[in-house]
Design a protein that fits this description.
About 70% of the residues lie in helices and about 0% in strands. The chain is an all-alpha fold. About 5% of the residues are buried. It has a domain of about 50 residues.
């Protein structure tokens, strides 16, 4: 059934369903969704499976810190 909708969307990427799933979960986490809610939505039994989706969020958080935190901008803290 899902393949029908992917074809209708015009997306011709192998594994598009997983790509959409990953993009939605990552976006939700980046925008403040609770990881346990995302876990339930994705149907993951173990939270460690859902934590895979947080890697993009942590990178974004690190970039925001490096670019905006006053102590880091002044050079008082080492870049990690």
């Amino acid at each position: 059934m899902k393949e029908k909708y992917i074809r209708r969307s015009g997306v011709e990427i192998k594994g598009a369903c997983h790509v959409f799933r990953h993009a939605v979960a990552t976006s939700m986490l980046d925008n403040g969704a609770d990881i346990q809610h995302v876990q339930v939505m994705l149907g993951h039994v173990d939270i460690s499976t859902t934590q895979i989706y947080t890697h993009a969020g942590i990178k974004k958080l690190t970039d925001v810190y490096r670019n905006t935190h006053p102590a880091n901008i002044r050079g008082n803290l080492e870049s990690r």
